[in-house]
TrEMBL record:
It comes from the Bacteria. The keyword Transmembrane helix does not apply. NCBIfam families: sigma70-ECF. InterPro entries: RNA_pol_sigma-70-like (IPR039425), RNA_pol_sigma-70_dom (IPR014284), RNA_pol_sigma70_r2 (IPR007627), RNA_pol_sigma_r2 (IPR013325), RNA_pol_sigma_r3/r4-like (IPR013324), WH-like_DNA-bd_sf (IPR036388). Keywords: DNA-binding, Sigma factor, Transcription, Transcription regulation. Residues 15-79 form the RNA polymerase sigma-70 region domain. The lineage of its organism: Bacteria, Pseudomonadati, Pseudomonadota, Gammaproteobacteria, Alteromonadales. GO terms for molecular function: DNA binding; sigma factor activity. Gene3D superfamilies: 1.10.1740.10, Winged helix-like DNA-binding domain superfamily/Winged helix DNA-binding domain (1.10.10.10). GO terms for biological process: DNA-templated transcription initiation. The keyword Transcription applies. It comes from Shewanella fidelis. Belongs to the sigma-70 factor family. ECF subfamily. This is Sigma-70 family RNA polymerase sigma factor.
C-alpha cells in the first residue's frame, strides 16, 4: 500500500488481485444480497484509492481493508434498521439429480451431507450479525480473534466471546434442525 501511495499503480493491482476474492465473499456472506455486496465491495476499493495518500501503517493492510468493509456494512445496516431478521435463499444445485443418479452407492450419504450443509448455511444466516461476522472472518478468512477485534472495533475478549457463541449457536441450531428434519 505504501508503494501505491508513492505512485506505483502496479502495487495497487497486486493488492487488488490478492484480496478481491476473499473481500467479495465477505460481503456476500455478510449481506446475502449480491447487488448490495457488489456495491459495497466497489465502495471499499474506492475508499482504498482515496485514502492512499494518507495511508499509515498502523495495522496490517488486510486489517485496514476489512475495517473499511466492516464500517461500510455497519453504515448500511444502520440505514436499513431494523436488522432483526437475516434470511438466506438457497437455490438447488444445477443438475443435482444427475450427479446423484451416477453415484447410487453414496446417494444416502450425499443427501445427508447436502442437508447438513443447507442446515448449516441457514444457521449461519440466522446468527446475530456480530457473531456471524466474527465467525466468517475466523473460518473463511482465517483471521485471528485479535485481527477480528481490530476490524470490528471490539475488545479481544468480546471478539472471542462472539466467536465462541457463534460456534455454540451453530452447533445447537444444526442439531435442532437436524433432529426436526429427521422426525418429519
Amino acid at each position: 500500500m505504501l508503494q501505491y501511495a508513492a505512485g506505483n499503480a502496479r502495487a495497487f493491482e497486486v493488492l487488488y488481485l490478492k484480496h478481491k476474492g476473499p473481500l467479495y465473499r465477505y460481503f456476500v456472506r455478510q449481506l446475502n444480497d449480491q447487488q448490495l455486496a457488489e456495491d459495497l465491495y466497489q465502495d471499499t476499493w474506492s475508499r482504498v484509492i482515496k485514502a492512499a495518500s494518507s495511508y499509515e501503517t498502523s495495522a496490517k493492510f488486510t486489517t485496514w481493508l476489512y475495517r473499511i468493509a466492516h464500517n461500510l456494512i455497519i453504515d448500511h445496516l444502520r440505514a436499513v434498521k431494523p436488522v432483526n431478521s437475516f434470511t438466506e435463499v438457497f437455490e438447488p444445485e444445477q443438475d443435482h439429480q444427475a450427479q446423484l443418479a451416477n453415484q447410487d452407492d453414496n446417494l444416502e450419504s450425499q443427501l445427508m451431507d447436502n442437508q447438513k450443509a443447507t442446515l448449516l448455511k441457514g444457521c449461519v444466516a440466522d446468527l446475530p450479525q456480530v457473531q456471524k461476522e466474527a465467525f466468517l472472518l475466523n473460518v473463511e478468512m482465517g483471521f485471528t480473534a485479535a485481527i477480528i477485534a481490530d476490524i470490528a472495533g471490539a475488545t479481544l475478549e468480546a471478539t472471542k466471546s462472539r466467536i465462541r457463541y457463534a460456534y455454540k449457536g451453530l452447533k445447537d441450531c444444526v442439531e435442532l434442525k437436524w433432529q426436526g428434519a429427521n422426525h418429519d
